[in-house]
Amino acid sequence: MTTILDGSIAELEEIKEALNERDSRHAELDVARDELKAKDREISKEYKKIEDSIKEIKKAKVKEISLPVDKEVSEAEREWKNSIRLRENKKNEEINRRITERTGDKQDEYDKTQRELRSYLKKYRMPSFCATPFYFSLYRPKTAHGLLTFIITAAICLLAIPILVICLASVTPVAKVFIYIGIVLIFALIYAAGYTLSQPRRNKKILDEIADVVEDNRKLKVEIKKIQKGIINDPDESGYGLEEFDSEIVRNKGIYDNAVAKREAMLERFEKEEEPEIRDEVEQAHAEVMDELIVERDDLQKNYDEKAEDYEAADAFLQKTYGVYIGNNNLNERKINELIEIIRQGKAKNVYSALEVQKEGASLKGVLGEMMDKFSADEDEDGEAFDERPEDQSDSEFLEEENRVTSDSALNGEGSDVEENKSSAEDPEADLSGMLDEMMSEFSLGDEKEE
């Protein structure tokens, strides 16, 4: 029983025709797939157009329905928030009244001592800075609070600021040292200037009196703030007379809630009753176009299924008829052309022997590749051997020596060998290619003898 392996070029041409047929079926399948995807995109665009139309109509209808109710909701919200604001104003007034009643005497005493301090400073020609707790914390710290203020200020001026400036400056370490010294000197001068300007010119003891007054005022201010904080944070509002405002807030809040509930009920009724009607109207307006698109899509789907079946049948025919003999990996046009060329060159008489030659050629190419890689590696290692010469020999002496050796070789009849070796060294790839051709010819002759 003869098989495709016993055939020759004619059978391989049949395989090529079958391959072309399968490729043609595959191309038709790709075209059908692209057409189907394009139609799906067109249908999606039409669906989006329908949804956009529904949204636009719905938005306009909702605006028309809710406009009067929205106005009612806005007015109710404004009245509700206004009643809350009036209550807060009334509460703040009552809080200020309580603070004034509790701290009025202390505030009057504080203001009186502040006026006396200003008169002292004006009389002794001292800057107003001398009447602050910060001044006495820097120059005359007597309390724990003043001492802590002095330490923090010194740390900021003598450490934090200079270090920050040094870190930001891109200069040499020596320059950074000078920058640090300069900043410290600047703060020292400012400190000394403040001390000099703050000294009274006629009465040196006035600073002690001012310091006592400033400390008393600081304690008085702390006491006043403590009372104010206690009154502001007092949760008891029964003495402020806010009952009328509370009832007004509750009433306005009820009106606002009713308006919001009315709007939500109208929107809910619209979504249940009118929105489905809007959707039906829009879909009915686009029904004809959508029906045409769906029919066209069904036809394209049917065409795609037919093309897929044709391709699968052509591929199955190839594998069942030819692949089982020559291998599925050889079912491509390049491999078939190689087999045809082997038979035409006389290296094989049938498909089976052509497959053997092709397999042996592939093995030889693998061996040749290994030889080429090894040859390249050896050439890289020994590339400098051709140019070896004594280190003390000049270029002209080396050339003269080489010419002399070449002349002697030519006189002794070795010139042809030298030229042959030179050409082989210059083109190693050509030499290896020749070796491959010779080996291929030997394998072909061996096959013919066996036949």
- Residue-averaged pLDDT: 79
What's the story with the biggest beta sheet?
none
**Helix coverage percent:** over 70%
- Molecular shape: elongated
Number of helices: 12
Distance between the termini: 19 Å
Percent in strands: under 5%
What does the radius of gyration come to? 53 Å
Low-confidence stretches: 383-388, 409-430, 442-451
The oligomeric state is single chain
Count every beta strand, where a strand is a DSSP E run of 2 or more residues: 0
- The helix/strand class is mainly alpha
Order of helices and strands: HHHHHHHHHHHH
Defining traits:
451 residues; mainly alpha; 12 helices; 84% helix; disordered C terminus
Task: Please tell me about this protein's structure.
It is a single chain. The protein is mainly alpha-helical and about 450 residues long. Among the domains are: about 130-200, no CATH class; about 330-380 and about 395-450, no CATH class. It is about 85% helix and about 0% strand. The protein has 12 helices and no strands. The protein has helices at about 10-125, 135-140, 145-170, 175-195, 205-230, 245-285, 285-325, 335-345, 350-380, 395-410, 415-425, 430-450. The longest helix has about 120 residues, at about 10-125.
How does the SSE layout of this entry go?
Layout: H1 9-123, H2 133-139, H3 144-168, H4 173-197, H5 206-232, H6 243-285, H7 287-326, H8 333-344, H9 351-382, H10 395-411, H11 415-426, H12 428-450
Please give a quick description of this structure.
The protein has 451 residues and is mostly helical.
